[in-house]
Design a protein that fits this description.
It is built from 11 helices and 9 strands. With 302 residues, the protein is an alpha/beta fold. It is globular.
Length: 302
């Protein structure tokens, strides 16, 4: 199983400036990927431009893959995205994994003057335009202009699609892209989503992708008191952000090394997970504690 990690500090402008250092640290620790989310408007340092930050990370790293957990397509012009992504993939020499999303915030769509009812249509149109541009097709019907530079990876960077709900899962399958599972949904929800997604792949006559990525908040500690503190923090953070039945196991994996191995082993067995993005940024946990957990996780699976 491949192990990747998200940035563990995005709390301030100073933290954003540390993204290249965080990526370099993740690389030196032995993670195979370093991932950034996208968010807008809220907090002391919203992460609205992940491609820019990943370009900075590319300059400080040599081997680690660099990814976006969900670059929001409906609010962007597809040709501009295709150009920026191709340039970033060249800078990273093919280390880019582009996770794509439709967005869900009403405020986001209001600010960008987008009808949220059109987000799936816009997503499909944008991704189709980007794929055509990366294949070298003309960028408009009345012009012979073509994309330059082309991506380092051919014909395009690796594309994964974050999805919530049956329609989004069907759309991910129609493009034949891996479904990037949410860190906020329970194990039971992910199991149901993957079943729907795989059925949609068959309906679309798309081969099943070899990679099965899951993003989970993971914290490894032998301290019962620290584990309880982390669980309380995560429970509070996720309250109202994810639907789960009372009998579902939580949408995070926290506890001893043995517990983490058992739970993630079930993810591998039941879901087919072979790529884990370990999410950090736990309120009340400092960088030293977070990195100690990441080190422990690497020891368990390497």
């Amino acid at each position: 199983m491949e192990l990747a990690v998200t940035a563990w500090d995005l709390s301030s402008p100073q933290a954003l400036r540390s993204i290249p250092n965080q990526a370099a640290t993740a690389e030196s620790m032995g993670f195979s990927g370093f991932w950034l989310p996208e968010n807008h408007f809220f907090g002391s340092a919203a992460l609205s431009a992940p491609l820019i930050l990943l370009a900075a990370a590319a300059s400080r790293t040599q081997s680690i893959d660099l990814g976006t957990t969900s670059l929001v397509l409906p609010i962007r012009h597809p040709v501009a995205v295709a150009e920026e992504v191709a340039t970033l993939d060249q800078l990273a020499e093919g280390r880019l994994i582009l996770g794509l999303g439709r967005g869900f915030s009403d405020d986001l769509f209001k600010v960008f003057a987008i009808d949220p009812k059109l987000k799936r249509t816009l997503f499909k149109q944008s991704l189709s335009t980007m794929l055509a541009a990366w294949e070298g097709q003309p960028l408009s019907e009345d012009s012979n202009a073509r994309l330059s530079p082309m991506p380092f990876q051919s014909p395009s960077p690796r594309l994964w699609i974050a999805a919530f709900g049956p329609l989004a899962l069907k759309q991910a399958a129609a493009f034949g892209c891996p479904y990037l599972a949410s860190p906020m949904e329970s194990f039971e929800a992910l199991q149901s989503n993957l079943t729907r997604y795989r059925a949609a792949l068959a309906d679309s006559a798309q081969p099943e992708p070899k990679v099965v990525p899951v993003m989970r908040t993971v914290f490894v500690t032998e301290s019962l008191s620290l584990a309880e503190k982390v669980k309380q923090s995560l429970t509070e953070e996720m309250r109202g952000r994810a639907e789960a039945n009372s009998h579902d196991e939580p949408a995070f994996v926290v506890g001893s090394a043995q517990h983490v191995v058992e739970v993630l082993g079930r993810y591998q067995e039941k879901l087919g997970m072979n790529y884990l993005i370990a999410r950090g940024r736990i309120r009340g946990i400092n960088e030293q504690q977070q990195l100690a957990s990441h080190e422990a996780l690497l020891k368990l699976f390497h």
